[in-house]
Inverse folding.
């Protein structure tokens, strides 16, 4: 029995190594299934909770054009959450259970959304920096080993690039505006820069699951590799805008052909992950309220569908 | 807390006239009409479709992936089903 199990696991790894996709009904190690359910549902929760900081500005967007764009973007985030929940469900997770875990505080979501959006420039930073970081994470996941996850990510990535560009455009408009507008852009960058670097997760030597996730190809670059890529991409973009990233150590290093940069405040990172960020409580409460206040709609729709089915 | 889930539906979309409907994903909805409306909002926000099919997931029957090798084996050794199996003389221009 044990040898048969071993063989199955080896065959599975062989398929992964040959870059074959795993599909829902295929045999897979239990740990692969569990890790994926956790990863995909966390990702879905991040999309859903991620609507909140931006939703905060829909009624206060500075023009009708900006409001329309922001609405479309927030609607996209909802869509991304739904693609991802569906992908997790193909692994046997139930939607209600995933939501219950989120609402009970048992499931995690990206800690970046526990920071507040205080000015309009924050909406620029969320698009430019936060979605920029998300894209770096997500593009390699289009080639992840689990088929439904990879397919969902292809759709997400297609839509995400508009998000980043609209954020950059907001920043550019502010930076080309009055000195007060430019100051607002710089102030927002100062607040968002470090939390964005934290989005890539702990340092490689403190990320125990990385090796196995890379072996399974559900992660394709390490946290530090992606963080480096992000800094290399963003420092020149900030310079283009005439802004300065709030890190005195951020300097081009000719030998490594990349930027050196300072240390992330990991104490802050763990505080926010563990529920003590500025908005953790509000974000979760908003999700729980939406779920509870929507209960009658879900029940009524189901009752209506049953009644109609009985009539036919 | 309400734990009663709406049923799951599989969504198929025809991206333009002349092409097949293709599976794009799934979603929850109380009934077919809602499933189609939700599918429009979730899967066609950028003109990805001109037609939507939804089927309740429990109605889909699938072949077993564990049997795939044996199940699809009959087609494996019949190269003569492909036109490239046949040699056409050079002097014959179009066939």
């Amino acid at each position: 029995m044990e040898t048969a199990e071993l063989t199955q696991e080896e065959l599975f790894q062989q398929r992964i190594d040959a870059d074959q996709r795993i599909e829902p009904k295929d045999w897979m190690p239990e740990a692969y299934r569990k890790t994926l359910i956790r990863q995909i549902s966390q990702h879905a929760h991040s999309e859903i909770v991620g609507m909140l900081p931006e939703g905060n500005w829909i009624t206060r967007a500075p023009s009708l054009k900006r409001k329309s764009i922001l609405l479309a973007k927030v609607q996209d985030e909802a869509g991304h959450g739904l693609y991802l929940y569906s992908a997790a469900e193909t692994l046997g997770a139930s939607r209600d259970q995933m939501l219950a875990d989120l609402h009970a505080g048992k499931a995690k979501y990206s800690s970046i959304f526990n920071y507040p959006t205080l000015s309009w420039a924050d909406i620029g930073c969320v698009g430019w920096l936060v979605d920029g970081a998300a894209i770096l994470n997500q593009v390699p996941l289009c080639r992840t080993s689990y088929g439904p996850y990879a397919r969902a990510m292809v759709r997400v990535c297609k839509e995400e690039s508009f998000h980043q560009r609209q954020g950059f455009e907001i920043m550019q408009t502010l930076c080309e505006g009055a000195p007060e507008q430019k100051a607002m852009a710089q102030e927002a960058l100062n607040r968002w820069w470090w939390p964005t670097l934290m989005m890539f997760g702990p340092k490689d030597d403190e990320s125990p699951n990385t090796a196995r996730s890379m072996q399974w190809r559900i992660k394709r670059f390490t946290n530090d590799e992606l963080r480096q890529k992000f800094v290399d991409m963003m420092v020149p973009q900030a310079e283009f805008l005439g802004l300065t990233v709030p890190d005195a150590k951020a300097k081009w290093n000719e030998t490594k052909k990349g930027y050196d940069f300072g240390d992330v405040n990991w104490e802050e990172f763990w505080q926010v992950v563990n529920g003590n960020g500025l908005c953790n409580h509000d974000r979760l409460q908003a999700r729980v309220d939406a779920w509870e206040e929507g209960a009658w709609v879900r029940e009524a729709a189901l009752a209506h569908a049953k009644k109609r089915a009985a009539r036919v | 807390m309400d734990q009663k889930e709406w049923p799951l539906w599989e969504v198929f979309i025809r991206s333009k006239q002349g092409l097949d409907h293709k599976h794009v994903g799934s979603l929850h909805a109380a009934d077919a009409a809602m499933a189609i409306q939700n599918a429009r909002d979730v899967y066609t926000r950028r003109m990805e479709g001109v037609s939507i099919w939804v089927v309740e997931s429990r109605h889909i029957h699938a072949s077993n992936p564990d049997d795939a090798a044996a199940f699809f084996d009959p087609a494996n050794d019949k190269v003569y089903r492909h036109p490239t199996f046949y040699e056409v003389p050079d002097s014959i221009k179009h066939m």
Observations:
- The interface with chain A takes residues 1-6, 8, 25-28, 30-31, 34, 41-43, 45-46, 62, 64-66 of chain B (CB under 8 Å).
- Chain B has one domain: 3-85.
- The CA atoms of residues 60 and 79 of chain B lie 32 Å apart.
- The beta strands of chain B are 8-14, 21-28, 51-56.
